[in-house]
Amino acid sequence: MKRIEGVKLFLMDMDGTVYVGDSKIPGAMEALQTLKEKGKKVLFLTNNSSKTASSYVGKLSKMGYPVTEEDIYSSGEATIRFLLEERAGKKVLLLANSAVYKQFEAAGVPLVREGGDLVVVCFDTELTYEKLVAACNDLFEGKEYIVSHPDVVCPAEPYSVPDVGSFMALIEAVTGRKPDLVIGKPERTMARYIAERYGLRPEEIAMCGDRLYTDIRFAVNNGMKSILVLTGETTKEMLASSDLRPDLVLDTFADVLQYV
User: Which of 2, 150, 164, 194 lies 20 to 30 A from 185 at CA?
Assistant: First the structure.
Protein backbone atom coordinates (compact mmCIF):
# COMPACT_ATOMS: atom_id res chain seq x y z
CA MET A 1 0.00 0.00 0.00
CA LYS A 2 2.88 2.36 0.72
CA ARG A 3 4.00 2.08 -2.88
CA ILE A 4 1.38 4.56 -4.09
CA GLU A 5 1.08 6.53 -0.91
CA GLY A 6 1.17 10.27 -1.55
CA VAL A 7 -0.05 10.09 -5.15
CA LYS A 8 -1.98 13.26 -6.02
CA LEU A 9 -2.39 12.85 -9.78
CA PHE A 10 -3.44 9.72 -11.66
CA LEU A 11 -2.46 9.67 -15.33
CA MET A 12 -4.88 7.33 -17.05
CA ASP A 13 -4.31 5.48 -20.26
CA MET A 14 -7.68 4.79 -21.87
CA ASP A 15 -8.05 1.82 -24.22
CA GLY A 16 -7.30 -1.33 -22.25
CA THR A 17 -7.38 0.58 -18.94
CA VAL A 18 -10.83 2.17 -18.54
CA TYR A 19 -12.47 0.78 -21.67
CA VAL A 20 -11.80 -1.72 -24.45
CA GLY A 21 -13.04 -0.51 -27.80
CA ASP A 22 -16.52 0.81 -27.11
CA SER A 23 -17.08 -1.19 -23.91
CA LYS A 24 -16.44 0.12 -20.41
CA ILE A 25 -14.26 -1.99 -18.14
CA PRO A 26 -16.54 -2.75 -15.16
CA GLY A 27 -15.87 -0.53 -12.16
CA ALA A 28 -13.01 1.47 -13.70
CA MET A 29 -14.83 4.76 -14.22
CA GLU A 30 -16.60 4.45 -10.88
CA ALA A 31 -13.18 4.08 -9.27
CA LEU A 32 -12.01 7.25 -11.00
CA GLN A 33 -15.01 9.13 -9.66
CA THR A 34 -14.23 7.91 -6.14
CA LEU A 35 -10.61 9.04 -6.50
CA LYS A 36 -11.80 12.51 -7.47
CA GLU A 37 -14.12 12.58 -4.44
CA LYS A 38 -11.06 11.78 -2.33
CA GLY A 39 -9.35 14.88 -3.72
CA LYS A 40 -7.16 13.16 -6.29
CA LYS A 41 -6.61 14.65 -9.74
CA VAL A 42 -7.19 12.60 -12.90
CA LEU A 43 -5.77 13.27 -16.36
CA PHE A 44 -6.45 10.98 -19.32
CA LEU A 45 -3.10 10.60 -21.07
CA THR A 46 -2.85 9.01 -24.49
CA ASN A 47 -0.14 8.45 -27.05
CA ASN A 48 -2.77 8.37 -29.80
CA SER A 49 -2.00 11.37 -31.99
CA SER A 50 -4.70 10.57 -34.55
CA LYS A 51 -7.47 12.08 -32.42
CA THR A 52 -8.16 15.46 -30.87
CA ALA A 53 -9.21 15.96 -27.26
CA SER A 54 -12.79 16.69 -28.34
CA SER A 55 -13.20 13.19 -29.77
CA TYR A 56 -12.22 11.66 -26.42
CA VAL A 57 -14.57 14.00 -24.58
CA GLY A 58 -17.42 12.67 -26.69
CA LYS A 59 -16.49 9.04 -26.16
CA LEU A 60 -15.98 9.23 -22.40
CA SER A 61 -19.14 11.30 -21.92
CA LYS A 62 -21.20 8.73 -23.82
CA MET A 63 -19.84 6.11 -21.44
CA GLY A 64 -21.19 8.07 -18.50
CA TYR A 65 -17.97 9.79 -17.41
CA PRO A 66 -18.30 13.49 -18.25
CA VAL A 67 -15.00 15.26 -18.95
CA THR A 68 -13.75 18.44 -20.60
CA GLU A 69 -10.87 18.90 -23.04
CA GLU A 70 -8.74 19.99 -20.08
CA ASP A 71 -9.02 16.43 -18.74
CA ILE A 72 -7.37 14.96 -21.87
CA TYR A 73 -3.73 15.23 -22.93
CA SER A 74 -2.22 13.54 -25.98
CA SER A 75 1.21 13.11 -27.47
CA GLY A 76 -0.05 15.29 -30.32
CA GLU A 77 -0.74 18.19 -27.97
CA ALA A 78 2.66 17.73 -26.33
CA THR A 79 4.28 17.76 -29.78
CA ILE A 80 2.56 21.04 -30.62
CA ARG A 81 3.88 22.62 -27.41
CA PHE A 82 7.38 21.37 -28.13
CA LEU A 83 7.37 22.81 -31.65
CA LEU A 84 6.04 26.19 -30.54
CA GLU A 85 8.44 26.54 -27.61
CA GLU A 86 11.59 24.76 -28.77
CA ARG A 87 11.44 24.88 -32.57
CA ALA A 88 9.67 28.23 -32.97
CA GLY A 89 9.38 29.38 -36.57
CA LYS A 90 10.69 26.13 -38.04
CA LYS A 91 8.80 24.86 -41.07
CA VAL A 92 7.32 21.43 -40.32
CA LEU A 93 6.54 18.65 -42.76
CA LEU A 94 3.83 16.89 -40.77
CA LEU A 95 2.42 13.41 -41.30
CA ALA A 96 -1.00 13.55 -39.63
CA ASN A 97 -4.63 13.03 -40.54
CA SER A 98 -6.71 16.06 -41.52
CA ALA A 99 -8.22 16.72 -38.06
CA VAL A 100 -4.83 16.71 -36.33
CA TYR A 101 -3.19 18.62 -39.19
CA LYS A 102 -5.75 21.39 -38.65
CA GLN A 103 -5.03 21.30 -34.90
CA PHE A 104 -1.31 21.94 -35.51
CA GLU A 105 -2.16 24.63 -38.05
CA ALA A 106 -4.60 26.41 -35.72
CA ALA A 107 -1.99 26.38 -32.94
CA GLY A 108 0.39 28.34 -35.17
CA VAL A 109 2.82 25.63 -36.25
CA PRO A 110 4.17 26.55 -39.74
CA LEU A 111 3.31 23.56 -41.94
CA VAL A 112 4.61 22.70 -45.41
CA ARG A 113 3.95 19.82 -47.79
CA GLU A 114 7.60 19.44 -48.79
CA GLY A 115 10.98 20.96 -48.01
CA GLY A 116 10.47 21.45 -44.28
CA ASP A 117 13.08 22.32 -41.68
CA LEU A 118 12.05 19.20 -39.79
CA VAL A 119 9.79 16.15 -40.17
CA VAL A 120 7.15 15.28 -37.58
CA VAL A 121 5.34 11.94 -37.73
CA CYS A 122 2.03 11.48 -35.93
CA PHE A 123 -0.44 8.60 -36.19
CA ASP A 124 -1.57 9.46 -39.71
CA THR A 125 -4.65 7.35 -40.45
CA GLU A 126 -4.82 9.01 -43.88
CA LEU A 127 -1.21 8.28 -44.83
CA THR A 128 -0.51 8.38 -48.58
CA TYR A 129 2.45 7.29 -50.63
CA GLU A 130 3.06 10.90 -51.67
CA LYS A 131 3.24 12.10 -48.05
CA LEU A 132 5.58 9.27 -47.16
CA VAL A 133 7.93 10.04 -50.06
CA ALA A 134 8.02 13.75 -49.16
CA ALA A 135 8.96 12.90 -45.57
CA CYS A 136 11.66 10.44 -46.64
CA ASN A 137 13.11 13.00 -49.06
CA ASP A 138 13.56 15.51 -46.24
CA LEU A 139 15.11 12.86 -44.02
CA PHE A 140 17.58 11.91 -46.76
CA GLU A 141 18.59 15.58 -46.71
CA GLY A 142 19.36 15.35 -42.98
CA LYS A 143 16.36 17.24 -41.60
CA GLU A 144 15.50 16.72 -37.92
CA TYR A 145 13.12 13.79 -37.36
CA ILE A 146 10.56 13.86 -34.53
CA VAL A 147 7.74 11.40 -33.75
CA SER A 148 4.79 11.90 -31.43
CA HIS A 149 5.08 8.41 -29.89
CA PRO A 150 6.58 4.96 -30.59
CA ASP A 151 3.58 2.57 -30.33
CA VAL A 152 3.93 -0.13 -32.99
CA VAL A 153 0.22 -0.93 -33.17
CA CYS A 154 -3.06 0.63 -32.09
CA PRO A 155 -5.79 -1.64 -30.63
CA ALA A 156 -8.67 -2.14 -33.05
CA GLU A 157 -11.33 -4.69 -33.98
CA PRO A 158 -10.97 -7.35 -35.25
CA TYR A 159 -7.18 -6.85 -35.38
CA SER A 160 -4.66 -4.23 -34.26
CA VAL A 161 -3.65 -1.64 -36.89
CA PRO A 162 -0.24 -0.08 -37.72
CA ASP A 163 0.69 2.87 -35.52
CA VAL A 164 3.64 5.30 -35.52
CA GLY A 165 6.14 2.61 -34.51
CA SER A 166 5.28 0.76 -37.72
CA PHE A 167 5.76 3.95 -39.73
CA MET A 168 9.14 4.38 -38.02
CA ALA A 169 10.20 0.88 -39.12
CA LEU A 170 9.19 1.60 -42.72
CA ILE A 171 10.99 4.97 -42.74
CA GLU A 172 14.12 3.41 -41.25
CA ALA A 173 14.09 0.69 -43.91
CA VAL A 174 14.07 3.40 -46.59
CA THR A 175 16.31 6.10 -45.10
CA GLY A 176 18.31 4.35 -42.39
CA ARG A 177 17.07 7.04 -39.97
CA LYS A 178 15.69 6.55 -36.47
CA PRO A 179 13.83 9.45 -34.81
CA ASP A 180 15.97 12.15 -33.25
CA LEU A 181 13.29 12.72 -30.63
CA VAL A 182 10.20 10.93 -29.30
CA ILE A 183 7.74 13.24 -27.52
CA GLY A 184 5.17 10.90 -25.91
CA LYS A 185 5.32 7.91 -23.60
CA PRO A 186 7.75 6.50 -22.54
CA GLU A 187 10.10 9.46 -23.02
CA ARG A 188 10.64 12.60 -20.92
CA THR A 189 9.21 15.57 -22.80
CA MET A 190 5.53 14.90 -22.11
CA ALA A 191 6.31 13.99 -18.49
CA ARG A 192 8.00 17.34 -17.98
CA TYR A 193 5.02 19.21 -19.40
CA ILE A 194 2.62 17.39 -17.07
CA ALA A 195 4.74 18.01 -13.97
CA GLU A 196 4.95 21.71 -14.84
CA ARG A 197 1.20 21.96 -15.47
CA TYR A 198 0.25 20.54 -12.08
CA GLY A 199 3.24 21.71 -10.06
CA LEU A 200 3.90 18.21 -8.74
CA ARG A 201 6.98 16.14 -8.05
CA PRO A 202 7.29 12.90 -10.05
CA GLU A 203 6.66 10.73 -6.98
CA GLU A 204 3.29 12.46 -6.53
CA ILE A 205 2.17 11.21 -9.96
CA ALA A 206 1.06 7.69 -10.91
CA MET A 207 0.88 6.40 -14.47
CA CYS A 208 -1.85 3.79 -14.90
CA GLY A 209 -1.98 1.66 -18.02
CA ASP A 210 -1.96 -1.73 -19.69
CA ARG A 211 1.26 -1.52 -21.72
CA LEU A 212 4.68 -2.25 -20.29
CA TYR A 213 6.80 -0.60 -22.97
CA THR A 214 4.93 2.72 -22.99
CA ASP A 215 2.85 3.21 -19.82
CA ILE A 216 5.05 1.47 -17.24
CA ARG A 217 8.33 2.43 -18.91
CA PHE A 218 7.09 6.05 -18.94
CA ALA A 219 6.62 5.95 -15.16
CA VAL A 220 9.99 4.31 -14.58
CA ASN A 221 11.86 6.67 -16.92
CA ASN A 222 10.40 9.71 -15.18
CA GLY A 223 10.42 8.73 -11.50
CA MET A 224 6.64 8.31 -11.25
CA LYS A 225 4.66 5.60 -9.53
CA SER A 226 3.50 2.86 -11.90
CA ILE A 227 0.22 0.94 -11.91
CA LEU A 228 -0.25 -1.90 -14.40
CA VAL A 229 -3.74 -3.23 -15.15
CA LEU A 230 -4.26 -6.65 -16.69
CA THR A 231 -7.35 -5.68 -18.69
CA GLY A 232 -5.50 -4.83 -21.90
CA GLU A 233 -2.32 -5.83 -23.71
CA THR A 234 -0.13 -7.16 -20.89
CA THR A 235 -0.64 -10.66 -19.52
CA LYS A 236 0.84 -12.13 -16.35
CA GLU A 237 3.20 -14.15 -18.53
CA MET A 238 4.44 -11.01 -20.31
CA LEU A 239 4.98 -9.30 -16.96
CA ALA A 240 6.93 -12.27 -15.59
CA SER A 241 9.34 -12.15 -18.55
CA SER A 242 9.81 -8.37 -18.42
CA ASP A 243 12.57 -6.45 -16.66
CA LEU A 244 9.97 -3.88 -15.54
CA ARG A 245 8.42 -4.17 -12.10
CA PRO A 246 5.37 -1.92 -11.61
CA ASP A 247 4.69 -0.52 -8.15
CA LEU A 248 1.21 -2.03 -8.31
CA VAL A 249 -0.36 -4.71 -10.51
CA LEU A 250 -4.17 -4.84 -10.65
CA ASP A 251 -6.52 -7.31 -12.27
CA THR A 252 -8.69 -4.29 -13.06
CA PHE A 253 -8.41 -0.58 -12.23
CA ALA A 254 -11.45 -0.86 -9.96
CA ASP A 255 -9.13 -2.60 -7.48
CA VAL A 256 -7.10 0.58 -6.97
CA LEU A 257 -9.49 1.73 -4.27
CA GLN A 258 -7.98 -0.83 -1.89
CA TYR A 259 -4.72 1.14 -1.98
CA VAL A 260 -5.74 4.78 -1.58
Answer: 2
